[in-house]
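[job 4471] stage=fold_predict status=RUNNING
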Amino acid sequence: MSKIIPVRNESKKETISKNASKLFRKKGFSATSMRELAVDIGVEASSLYNHIGSKSELLQIICFKVANDFINQINELEQIEIDVTIKLEKIIRFHIHKMLEDYDMVYVANHEWKHLQEPFLKNFLNQRKLYENKLIELIKIGIFEKSIKKLNPQVLAFTILSAVRGLEFWQQHKKNIDIAELEKTMVTQLLNGIIK
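[job 4471] inference complete, writing structure tokens
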């Protein structure tokens, strides 16, 4: 068997995590073994343990990579002085791009997080709740500034999150839909329903 060959500018750990994401998505976290992951990458199982301590550590890396990407993006937007509706558009577009470009990792973070061990499980759920609360707060600001219709902020936030998460279905049943057209249609549909 050969060595782990990182893709582009990725570290070996990132390469392992991406391969693990594919397997966790296809088979589930519980049903995937480190031996299978090693075969998938093309190395001896012992080689994996030079970079990763356990399968649980891989799940932590994947879940927190996704969670951190979303938190960092919304934190950056909070610092920018632009209209709330533009911030919401950027959030929706970011979700769409993550679902299309990092589908396996996002899928695992959305579905396999329940296998995280404590204290990681609690930390991950807290991070998700923080993100949801930041999105709700952003919508409340838009309602206060009268750029967003006076609707329930929680319902609006979860409608947006549910819609972009629905791209999982699109990924599983890809049709001949242009990605730019998909993004444009989703952004237009989601924002037209809430912007004044």
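[job 4471] summary: The chain is about 70% helix and 0% strand.
[job 4471] exit 0
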